[in-house]
UniProtKB/TrEMBL annotation, chains A, B:
The keyword Chloroplast does not apply. Belongs to the flavin oxidoreductase frp family. This is NADPH-dependent oxidoreductase. Pfam families: Nitroreductase (PF00881). Keywords: Flavoprotein, FMN, NADP, Oxidoreductase. It comes from the Bacteria. One of its GO terms (molecular function) is oxidoreductase activity. Residues 31-185 form the Nitroreductase domain. InterPro entries: Flavin_OxRdtase_Frp, Nitroreductase, Nitroreductase-like.
Length: 271, 271
């Protein structure tokens, strides 16, 4: 697909950014969609290992590698994890469900084996490094999966009950499931289209942060996303209203308002 | 490069995982290296917009898009940011320095314009969503940059002083620089080689977490990374010792032990 068409699909015809250098990888990245309906077909042999090799090839802070991944294929276990995530049916449908772990437990075992204590472990910073590195790794796995013709969707709702996920996966203290990822062959039946994002000037700042013109950009995006929703027989209320609905009430966090307590219980003091 | 060679470079010859399906994108992902020496050559016109389009194509939790990016090219500003990051010279060398922002300020402005308050904003969960989505976006930008022949390195050390970064970039309350990213043409002079990672069985778990065999895997990795370091005239002490040095003492966090206080000062209560 020519770059201009890919950018038009991502931003809408009225907000195409300047077209710069391009590559086939850019075509693939711009074509990303999250997929929530999967065929039951198993993955080719070795797919998991390939995805993990891509994930481990991402950068990792100071080469600490403070993340792990648990590959779940057992239908009963997937069903229990889907229940934690509010019953999202695609977790049961997909042949491979990956849970990405912020993992300071391996580092703790290393220190114990060496007879040392690690003063840096209890800090919010160290948890954040682990969570961010898990995210970089997972995104590489997503790009890798899509390059193999597979589809994915992130499942942040595992954080609705981080303790239940830890118990289900037998995570040791200092390990926490940051998010899940469905991997599989997309069911072609539901309509598939790239979802538009905010116009670039709303998120890209030069030298210093600025928000002038932001209200007009948001209004334009409300309209663009409304047209997208109408094409997919989704309720066409404004993006603005979706944001208000998601963040307006504590109840909409679905338990994630307890994340700090859950993390402390799982061995992250977040000092 | 055949898949097996790429995997051997990433894991060492003794720990090549099973070879599964493969693609040219996999070749690119497996070939990643962080680059810390840049030529001063400017980037082709439109490169920044292309990288941001790739970044915005990554998944974002509930489509909230709670991240921003500040593109820094001014040499004086890069020098000041390099000082925050402990004087890393590649920040000054690279033609484009991207600071990835966990940005709840845009959502706050949206709520103010609508005359609403957002109960969900003050929670650790909501900060984490913003930081993770910034990471997914940035990793897409990294993959995009490498597909254009450019190189990158993440700069977590911006968190040494998150308040100084916020002041430098005029970030509003509720916005925080999670990490930086150098983008540019690699200086070919320093030797370039893919860095080995832990053997897959140390980080990949099936159905439930397990750590049996971990000590042997770590010993093998200590040896592998020692050989890598020797080839690059770096001190060849064990990975184990690097981890102990990085996390053993609070002083090695270089100020990041104050991240929680800094975040609170920047408008993230982390409830």
């Amino acid at each position: 697909m020519p770059a201009r068409d890919a950018l038009a699909a991502r931003y809408g015809a009225a907000h195409i950014p300047p077209t710069g250098p391009w590559s086939p990888v850019l075509d693939a990245l711009l074509a990303h969609r999250s997929v929530r309906a999967y065929r039951p077909d198993p993955l080719p042999e070795g797919t998991l290992e390939t995805l993990v090799a891509a994930a481990q090839s991402a950068a990792t802070s100071s080469n600490l590698q403070t993340w792990s991944v648990v590959a779940v294929t057992d239908p009963a276990r997937k069903a229990r994890l889907a229940a934690v995530a509010g019953g999202q049916k695609h977790i049961g449908q997909c042949p491979l469900f990956l849970v990405w772990i912020a993992d300071l437990s391996r580092t703790t075992r290393l220190a114990e084996a060496e007879g040392r204590t690690l003063e840096g472990l209890p800090y919010l910073e160290t948890f954040l490094v682990a969570a961010l590195d898990a995210a970089l790794a997972a995104q590489n796995a997503v790009v890798a999966a899509e390059s193999l013709g597979l589809s994915t969707v992130y499942i942040g709702a595992l954080r609705n009950d981080a303790r239940a996920v830890a118990a289900e996966l037998a995570l040791p203290p200092g390990a926490m499931g940051v998010f899940g990822l469905c991997v599989g062959h997309a069911d072609p039946a539901p309509p598939a289209e790239v979802k538009p994002r905010l116009p670039q000037p709303a998120i890209l700042h030069r030298e210093r942060y600025g928000s002038s013109g932001e209200e007009a950009l948001r209004a334009a995006y409300d309209s663009e996303l409304g047209r997208f929703s109408a094409r997919h027989e989704m309720s066409a209320y404004r993006w603005t209203d979706r944001v208000l609905a998601r963040l307006g009430r504590v109840a909409a966090l679905n338990g994630r308002d307890g994340l700090k307590d859950a993390l402390r219980a799982l061995g992250f003091p977040l000092r």
